[in-house]
Design a protein that fits this description.
Helices cover 82% and strands 0% of the residues. It contains eleven helices and no strands.
Length: 284
């Protein structure tokens, strides 16, 4: 790893602060390029199916470019884009598979915990017929605990698939199914650390989100009286302005998430596979 972005040794784990700060520095050093890539990705969202695949691929391209910087093998945007475009339909298939997996996790975990909650309520209700208030409170407590447990379980499982787009954008001989397995493999044992990194990164993006909300509110306050007068043109204009603000803010945030993801990917590969040592030997 280059001295500008990494830890003292490629094999030592990066702290949460180091991961986030490395992501910030990577983004800052390529601010214009990454922002324009993300903005292009958002514009592709307007095109059904093909455009969604392009959005996913261009977002992953940012991680690929950031990873190239981390391993001192920088790549041009044109070369990287050719690579991810060659796997465009694999990105689309990955999106579809992850949608199925995510829904399966949410509904599967939800069903299990609801079933447990119902059984617990039946048992508690049967035991507490003479003390209905206590039984009600106990059922409420059980429901709360189960709700928190279900949320944590869903979050834990989804985090195992946090890196699905990165191997597909970087590694050879990877397809839609194997990149999902690759993410599951790399994140094993590091879920809580990744969640903490994600939480810190989220806190950093809050000011941008607040600014967008303020600007959107101002736009609506300015144009709402005209819309109420029956001006359809103004309604379309307000919609376009808010959409533009959303795209602009999203394009500012996505590269940060993708560079942080690239640092996490590098760190996990370094510790699991000795990536840093292999690259160092190659350079020597």
């Amino acid at each position: 790893m280059s001295g500008d972005f990494g830890s003292p040794s490629p094999m030592q784990p990066l702290s949460v602060g180091n991961v986030v700060s490395a992501g910030i520095r990577l983004y800052r050093s390529h601010l214009k390029e990454y922002y324009l890539l993300a903005l292009r990705a958002y514009l592709w969202i307007l095109v059904p199916v093909y455009g969604w695949a392009k959005f996913y691929a261009l977002s992953a391209l940012i991680s690929r470019l950031a990873f190239g910087d981390l391993v001192d093998q920088p790549e041009s945007i044109a070369a990287g884009e050719r690579y991810v475009n060659s796997r465009l339909w694999q990105f689309l298939l990955t999106m579809l598979l992850m949608l199925i997996v995510s829904l399966g996790i949410v509904f599967g975990v939800g069903f299990v915990f609801v079933l447990i909650g119902v059984l617990a309520a039946v048992v508690v209700g049967g035991l507490g017929q003479q003390a209905s208030l206590a039984a009600t409170l106990l059922v409420g407590l059980i429901a709360f605990i189960l709700g928190v447990a279900a949320f944590v379980a869903v979050l834990w499982l989804l985090t195992r698939f946090y890196l699905v787009d990165v191997p597909l954008a970087i590694e050879d001989n990877i397809d839609a199914t194997s990149t999902i397995g690759r993410s599951w493999e790399l994140t094993q044992g590091y879920v809580w650390r990744i969640l903490l990194i994600g939480f810190v990164a989220f806190l950093i993006t809050i000011p941008i989100q607040i600014l967008v909300q303020i600007l959107s509110t101002i736009v609506q306050l300015i144009f709402t009286p005209l819309i109420q007068q029956g001006s359809s043109a103004m309604a379309v204009l307000v919609f376009l302005l808010i959409l533009a603000l959303s795209f602009a803010s999203g394009a500012a945030i996505v590269p940060f998430w993708q560079t942080v993801k690239a640092v996490i990917y590098y760190d996990l590969r370094s510790r699991r596979e000795g990536l840093g040592l292999k690259l160092r030997d190659r350079e020597i």
